[in-house]
Specification:
With 257 residues, the protein is mainly α. It has helices at 14-26, 39-68, 85-104, 111-133, 142-167, 175-179, 181-195, 213-229, 231-256.
């Protein structure tokens, strides 16, 4: 496996898939292109999901052991919150889509993907600021006007990003990005895990550092899936992971009730 390969050869067993993952994590290398969507990719995701679940079971067992000794563990933002359809949608659909675009959409190293994310961010912020400076007004108060300006900025940024993607479609990964890929991969993984510290209260973030280990492990699996099977695969794997998590939370809540 090297930067010149198109993608990984499909693994023919659970052990082979996990072996490929282990070799990738030992030396992250960016393939020239992810494999096209196919049945083999879905099978691979199933194998990665099994590994994800196995890791989460081990971590839950460790957490349970620690808590049984009387150690206080910080609660997440979902603790004590009534989980309705809106929260379920945000956790299972919204978060995987948004987080995968932000943390791994650009991880392909392709100019269109990298520059599209930059264009989206700069475009959204720029349009929002221009509207604010121009005295843009919507609704009855400043809050409504600000939210409307942000909404227009996001839509405008998305359109600009779409144009960049179209103009730079088909371009291979940038050479410098491929050479520095291990750095980008681990930055993406660490960033993804650390952003979940905001699920805790500000004064508990330091003590909550061990609690984002699950996101670090999942982030490694998602990064591997993204560059070898495509962004759709990391979104799907992320959604399945979050779906299992929210199901566990709902089950625990109903059992306690």
């Amino acid at each position: 496996m090297n930067a010149g390969t198109t993608s990984l050869a499909p693994a023919n067993s659970l052990r082979a898939e996990w072996g490929q993952l282990a070799r990738f994590l030992k030396r992250p290398t960016l393939p020239a292109r992810a494999a096209p969507p196919r049945l083999a990719s879905l099978v691979a995701l199933g194998r990665l999901l099994m590994l994800d679940f196995a890791a989460m079971i081990v971590l839950l067992a460790i957490a349970g052991t620690v808590m049984s000794t009387g150690v206080d563990v910080p609660e997440t933002a979902l603790a004590g919150v009534e989980i309705g359809s809106a929260i379920i949608f945000a956790v299972v659909i919204g978060a995987p889509v948004v987080e995968e675009i932000l943390f791994r959409g650009w991880l392909s190293g392709r100019p269109g993907h990298v520059l599209a994310l930059l264009a989206f961010g700069l475009g959204a912020v720029g349009i929002t600021m221009l509207l604010a400076l121009s005295g843009f007004s919507y609704g009855t108060d400043a809050l409504e006007s600000g939210l409307a300006a942000m909404g227009i900025g996001v839509i405008g940024g998305a359109l600009i990003a779409g144009i960049v993607l179209f103009l730079l479609r088909g371009r291979p990964p940038m050479g410098w990005f491929s050479r520095a890929f291990p750095v980008f991969f681990w930055l993406s993984t660490f960033g993804f895990s650390l952003i979940h510290l905001f699920n805790f209260e500000p004064d508990e973030m330091t003590s909550a550092l061990p609690l984002v280990l699950p996101q670090f492990i999942t982030g490694m699996l998602l990064g591997y899936a993204r560059v070898h099977y495509g962004l759709w695969s990391s979104m799907l794997l992320h959604a399945l992971h979050n779906g299992a998590f929210i199901s566990l939370v709902l089950w625990a809540g109903s059992a306690a009730g």
